[in-house]
Amino acid sequence: MDKYNEVWRKIEKDMKRWKNKALGISSRIRGVKMFWVPKLTYLFQVLPLENSKQKIEIWNSLIREWIFGSKRTRIQKRLVYSHQSELGWGVPDLNSYYEAFQLKLLLEIGGEENQKWVRFENEVNDGIGRFGIFTKLEIKDLRSTVIPRKSTLEIWKKWQPIWLGRTSRWAPLESIYEEMKEAKWWEILKTKGYVRVNDMYRGGTLKPLQEVVKEVRNHFWLKILGLYKKIKTVDESENIWIDEPMEEIYKEMKKSKQRLAGKICRKMTSNKNGTITHKKSGAKKVR
């Protein structure tokens, strides 16, 4: 936290120095984006905060005051933070940036990469959260994790019902069928290209059970039947072929990781996405 306070003190000095300059609102917003946001977002990436919401909201409030003046503005917060292309002011929301960088980590954990930091965090947290955004979260899981993964999962717990409220076709098969963990038949399944739920389909239709059994090995048919029934239950009860917001971002990440946190943040503050991050009750759908 000391590093955050050090950076914020420098920002406050800039605020005082520039306060009385003849700058319009648009110029002030550009100044915030160019000079202050990069300093904080760098810390958001390398030094995750615990219980950060209250502190960041204070910073947001001070930045709004510097941009619009000390008088209470009548502009709705939704419009203050919405992108200019959506008729908002486009003021950077530090809380959305912070949460976006945390969700970016979860996206990378749930990807194909097997990086050292991912392996270390998985080991420290006894595998909790190892599926990234495809993790099925429970309260007991959050209590068993440590920083930084704990704070990351707490943020995802807020967004998951809105952005990925059902089983994803991109989810690892392990995440929906725990019996696969450390099983020999699962290793064979992976070598045959069956890694994610989507791999069990061809042209939008679930592959015949006998075809999969024959590919893997006939004596594993009972295990595969259990997996098959699980997928069939998901297929019949949830429409996995319509992309939810986080799946759209996941597919973009597979193409390029550039500006990934920015894309997540844009969705958080988007009117079209139907969410507001700035109310005390947390993320909610807007009708």
Put the structure in a nutshell.
The protein is mostly helical and 287 residues long. The protein has 14 helices and four strands.
Instruction: Give the end-to-end Cα distance, rounded to a whole number of Å.
Output: 38 Å
Largest sheet: 2 strands, antiparallel
Which H/E pattern describes the elements?
HHHHHHHHHHEEHHHHEE
Write out the strand line-up for the largest beta sheet, numbering strands in chain order. Answer: 1-2
Number of H- or I-type helical stretches: 14
Structural class: mainly alpha
Identify the quaternary structure here: single chain
Query: Which spans have pLDDT < 50 for at least 5 consecutive residues?
Result: 272-287
Rounded to the nearest angstrom, the radius of gyration is: 22 Å
- Overall pLDDT confidence: 84
What percent of residues are in strands? under 5%
Q: Identify the overall geometry.
A: elongated
- How many beta-strand elements? 4
Helix content: 55-70%
Task: Name the descriptors.
single chain, 287 residues, mainly alpha, two-stranded antiparallel ribbon, 14 helices, 56% helix, elongated, disordered C terminus
Give the topology, please.
Blueprint: H1 2-18, H2 25-46, H3 53-68, H4 77-81, H5 94-109, H6 116-124, H7 139-143, H8 149-163, H9 173-176, H10 184-191, E1 201-202, E2 205-206, H11 209-216, H12 221-237, H13 245-255, H14 260-268, E3 275-276, E4 284-285
Antiparallel strand pairs: 1-2, 3-4
Helix pairs in contact: 1-2, 2-3, 2-5, 5-8, 5-14, 11-12, 13-14
